[in-house]
Give the backbone structure.
Amino acid sequence: MTGGRLAIRVHPRAERAVRRGHPWVFAEGISQQRHEGRAGDLAVLFDGDNRFLAIGLYDPDSPIRVRILHKGEPETIDGEWFAARIKAAYQARAELLEQGTTGFRIVHGENDGLPGLVVDRYGHSLVVKLYTAAWFPYLHDILAGLRELVRTDRVVLRLSRAVERIAAGSVDLRDGQILQGHPLSGPVLFQENGLEFEADLARGQKTGFFLDQRDNRARVERYSGGKSVLDVFAYTGGFSVCAARGGALSVTSLDVSEPALAAAERNFLHNRSIAAVTAARHRVLAGDAFQLLPEIRSRGERFQMVILDPPAFAKAQAEIGRALASYARIIRMALELLSNGGLLVAASCSGRITADRFQQVVNETAHKAGRPLRILEQTGHPLDHPIGFPEGAYLKCIFAT
């Protein structure tokens, strides 16, 4: 099944944005269309002079009405076109396989020219995640393109919440479905910089693991020698295991999810052949960070490294103020647990919060707490999470002492 075609004329402001390379056309940017389209129709955009502007995927159920695939001169969008885009994205990540890493993002949506589509690799398994129902008609083409590049045991489908609701009433697709290959019998194993981790591809957050923090986990490893480490919002212990391999004397993994912490303990076991990982004292604490951190402080515990990797506090413009307050609050709590000369690692995955604004929050909070910080590093996106347009930049991390 493939989508139909739909002719659309856009307002001048939307036209200018598309010409600059922005991958979205919102509903209000459309000035005229011949008929109501279906999810997955190829929307052919024309400018005010009725000249070809771009072509993209139409989604009548999303505020982002068209996701741009190609602009400039007309081009045929078919299976070969999708395969070429996927191949180019994969080749751009080839060096990761030479670094002892088999867990990485193959396709990063808009930033790889395939808006609303994410493909992650976990060892011999792939996860295809859709953020728009417009990809439903092209799943066969995506799978065919992937088969040309990677020999895998299975491909798992993940759907965003909005897309999952649409799928429930329109197509025979569901979150966690095996699109091809063998059924899952539990978490799958993959490697990251020579460490072994597990990921729950059917039910885990995102696609099973936070692959975008790989470089920051490696940095934590370099800084952690001889330290006591507190990993807040630890999830399945990615930062914790890296700190242990780096020579941390003790590592505390704190998360609200007990199943995630159980996976963190298994991730330590997966790497028990590494002497430093086995030597590090590891404990887990289950509970809300905003409640547990004051309790830890009241017991007089202090740490030489505190890692903060919270979920996105701001997913919409209206949430920015509250998000900034939450960042300030959790950073203040972390500083109260940080020993003199200790290292704070603070990350934000809120795309609505810019890197400069995040740095400002960290510095202002530290100043008010009487604990001024010196920033050692401020990092962004890794190789497999490229930034192709301003809204594509979401990840930022600060290392400060």
